[in-house]
Write a structure and sequence with these properties.
- By secondary structure, the chain is an alpha+beta fold.
- The chain contains 5 helices and 6 strands; from the N terminus they run H-E-H-E-E-H-E-H-E-E-H.
- The chain has one domain: VC0802-like (2-Layer Sandwich).
- The chain is 32% helix and 30% strand.
- The longest helix is centred in the last third of the chain and has 11 residues.
């Protein structure tokens, strides 16, 4: 199944959905990453350490420190990984409103992590953009 590449079509069809959970970005040891991998949305290894995105409730339960709480917005359109400009257009619009965003592209969808207190405003902006 191939995703959509046309930028205008993607923007019209992106249908953002606010996930009803709070998420955090943490840095963990290799051992913690192995223990948490079934709960993780993402595990990414960098030279400096391992980043994991997990539900806030899991981090709190396991006493894993984090610095901020994030809302996740999933763009439900199946975007092609080679599409040029899709996330650039979206993140630029959020930036105009002073909203930071951490984007994660998976095979089928793009997922935007925005500060929790900006979730509703971000949804409005994305809905207007499409």
């Amino acid at each position: 199944m191939v995703g959509i590449k046309d930028l205008d079509e993607l923007l019209k069809a992106m249908k953002p959905v606010l996930v009803d959970k709070d998420f955090v970005f943490c840095t963990v040891s290799e051992e913690q990453a192995d223990e948490l991998k079934s709960d993780a949305l993402l595990v990414f290894k960098e030279k400096e350490g391992i980043t994991i995105i997990i539900e806030k409730a899991v981090a709190d339960k396991d006493s894993i420190p984090y610095s901020a709480v994030w809302a996740m917005i999933t763009l439900t359109v199946h975007s092609d990984l080679e599409t040029v400009g899709f996330l650039a257009r979206i993140t630029a619009k959020l930036a105009e409103e002073g909203i930071s965003v951490n984007a994660v592209s998976a095979y089928y969808h793009d997922h935007l992590f925005v500060p929790l207190d900006t979730a509703e405003r971000s949804m409005e902006i994305l809905s207007n953009l499409s």
